[in-house]
């Protein structure tokens, strides 16, 4: 049985890799076409390719579930079309054993994808964001888009980008006085000095008086704020670009500040349950190969896999966002489509024998 197990696992793994290569290729091509219109003297084609390369690890982890589904359909479908699955069943190999063989490489790539999303993708994505956003500053096209807003000590702060060392780029600090705006501080960058002190560089400060406006340009200025550097860095990143540990850390911080951390909790559970989602989709693929797709063509299997994958992803997004909107635990919202796929796959597998 070991040779048969390896044969089934190898077939599924190669199909998975082919599907992943195609998905990453299509995603990269579409992203390149979208980015090419931004080419300038500062943001070259080489910069675009660098950004796309940095984002590959995160895309790989994101496409693992759908690649697992279509890869299993293709790998086992090929064996079914050559009657090899029929021979295995005739030799006394139960369906659950074939399913276990198919799940082994998927579990491996799912764990590998989690490793990428935890240790590699956040660092690479942060570098990609810095390449993109710092080009905007070089061109003088800095605008209040693409970064993050947060409230700190009654001030409203915008951060365009941040790196893992805690250095901030493109900071705007809006200081209100009741219902009126007291001042706006615009700085190119900021570095952390001690617990509550930051040093702003290349500062332009606009102060609003009742009868006039005063503009100051300073090489540097101290900024006192109670937020820690790691929290500022996490706040400046999109939730889907953060690792599991970073998502959990910032979610707990927001909860201690009595702010809404549901979006970070949703992304945490979406990433944490990816391996389970992969297994659920593999079970659905197995039940389909031994059922309605047994005599289907390869194109039919791929089309079915894409449709099932889209339905699963839409269900994941729907229930996840509904849980955030209604105040329901995000873990439950993410789990609903996964549990539906698991139960459907198990029940259909039992019916197939």
Automatic annotation (TrEMBL):
It comes from the Bacteria. It is found in: Cell membrane. InterPro entries: LptG, LptG/LptF_permease. It is a multi-pass membrane protein. Keywords: Cell membrane, Membrane, Transmembrane, Transmembrane helix. The chain crosses the membrane at residues 12-33, 63-83, 95-116, 331-349. Belongs to the LptF/LptG family. NCBIfam families: LptG_lptG. Part of the ABC transporter complex LptBFG involved in the translocation of lipopolysaccharide (LPS) from the inner membrane to the outer membrane. Component of the lipopolysaccharide transport and assembly complex. The LptBFG transporter is composed of two ATP-binding proteins (LptB) and two transmembrane proteins (LptF and LptG). PANTHER family: LIPOPOLYSACCHARIDE EXPORT SYSTEM PERMEASE PROTEIN LPTG, SLR0882 PROTEIN-RELATED. This is LPS export ABC transporter permease LptG.
């Amino acid at each position: 049985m070991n040779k048969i197990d390896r044969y089934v696992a190898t077939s599924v793994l190669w199909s998975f890799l082919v599907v992943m290569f195609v998905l990453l290729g299509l995603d990269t091509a579409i992203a390149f076409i979208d980015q090419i219109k931004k080419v300038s003297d500062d943001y070259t084609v080489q910069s675009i390719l660098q950004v796309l390369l940095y984002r590959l690890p995160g895309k790989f982890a994101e496409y693992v579930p759908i690649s697992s589904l279509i890869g299993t359909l293709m790998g086992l479908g090929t064996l079914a079309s050559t009657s090899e699955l029929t021979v295995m069943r005739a030799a006394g190999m139960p369906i659950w054993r074939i399913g276990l063989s198919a799940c082994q490489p998927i579990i491996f790539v799912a764990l590998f994808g989690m490793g990428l999303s935890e240790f590699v993708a956040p660092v690479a994505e942060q570098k990609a964001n810095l390449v993109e956003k710092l080009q905007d500053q070089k061109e003088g096209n800095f605008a209040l888009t693409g970064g993050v807003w947060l409230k700190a000590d009654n001030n409203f702060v915008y951060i365009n980008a941040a790196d893992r060392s805690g250095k901030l780029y493109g900071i705007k600090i809006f200081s209100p006085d009741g219902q009126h705006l007291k001042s706006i501080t615009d700085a190119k960058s900021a570095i952390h000095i001690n617990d509550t002190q930051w040093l702003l560089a290349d500062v332009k400060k606009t102060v609003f008086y009742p009868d006039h406006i005063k503009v100051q340009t300073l090489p540097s200025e101290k900024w006192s704020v109670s937020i820690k550097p790691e929290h500022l860095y996490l706040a400046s990143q999109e939730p889907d670009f953060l690792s599991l540990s970073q998502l959990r850390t910032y979610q707990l911080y927001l909860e201690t500040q009595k702010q809404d951390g549901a979006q970070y909790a949703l992304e945490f559970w979406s990433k944490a349950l990816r391996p389970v989602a992969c297994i659920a989709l593999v079970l659905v693929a197995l039940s389909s190969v031994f059922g309605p797709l047994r005599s289907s063509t390869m194109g039919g299997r791929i089309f079915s896999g894409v449709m099932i994958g889209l339905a699963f992803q839409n269900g994941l997004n729907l229930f996840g966002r509904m849980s955030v909107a209604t105040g329901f635990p995000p873990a439950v919202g993410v789990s609903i489509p996964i549990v539906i796929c698991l139960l459907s796959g198990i029940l259909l597998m039992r019916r197939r024998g």
